[in-house]
Design brief:
2 copies of one chain form a homodimer.
Chain A: H1 11-22, H2 26-37, E1 41-42, H3 43-50, H4 54-66, E2 70-75, E3 78-83, H5 85-99
Antiparallel strand pairs in A: 1-3, 2-3
Helix pairs in contact in A: 1-5, 3-4
The first copy, chain A, binds a DNA duplex (30 and 30 nucleotides) through helix 3 and helix 4.
DNA sequence: TTAATTCATTGCAATATTACGATTAAAAGA
DNA sequence: TCTTTTAATCGTAATATTGCAATGAATTAA
């Protein structure tokens, strides 16, 4: 089907999955790392830095922007991207809660 | 293409993406949460709990196992699954390093 | 105005993912 | 042995993702 049955899961589970999904491609990981490293970054810089075609980078940027993790600011013919710090922090809270779950019992069935 | 160009990224970037990808589906999130909640869990229990068909759950379990995040132990005709705590901890280190990046400068281009 | 620059969008081909019915494999129970 | 139970695997349909060439839109430079 290729289509996740999101309606049978909780909002929290779907939210975790959506955030994780956007990190599930190395190009988007690389873009984010670059935005953290450089305080602001033009689209063209990312194309040069990462080595994928411009439309491909543009598409990845669109997905990151759609989730609110980055912001883009038009400056003439260029677009300057940066991390959306408030939303990044909110995302971290959600993901940390999931990643830092504790085992209720010191299980080891295996 | 549907195929990521992993060769142009660092091992670290690819590793982050692989972990994130497996969390990028709510069924796998739900499975992991259940395994944390219950100290051990049979495949059939997960099928009942989550509400996807048995082959679908089995497929998701396979992906989680392939990344080493869970272990499975055959007990008669059943299979008992649990979190692979050591590998989970190692994964957390990798993901936390990515999620907890700090901005080098108090950027705000936007 | 015209040309150049920068980036978004469109359209498409190749591949991956999701879901599940049908089947198989292995063990337990009758 | 035969049947039941449990879960993995196979096969396949529907959909999503990735990547890029071609194009378009907006701004700046000449």
């Amino acid at each position: 089907m290729g289509l996740a049955k999101t309606e049978i899961f909780t909002d929290q589970q779907n939210e975790i999955a959506l955030f994780a999904k956007v990190f599930g491609h190395p190009a988007r990981v690389a873009i984010l790392q670059q935005l953290f490293k450089i305080d602001a970054c033009y689209c063209g810089d990312l194309v040069n830095e990462i080595g994928l075609a411009q439309p491909t980078i543009s598409q990845h940027l669109k997905e990151l922007k759609h989730l609110g993790l980055i912001k883009g600011n038009v400056e003439g013919t260029s677009v300057c991207y940066c991390i959306h710090t408030e939303n990044w922090t909110a995302m971290k809270t959600v993901m940390n809660e999931f990643l830092n779950q504790d085992l209720t019992e010191k299980q080891d069935c295996c």
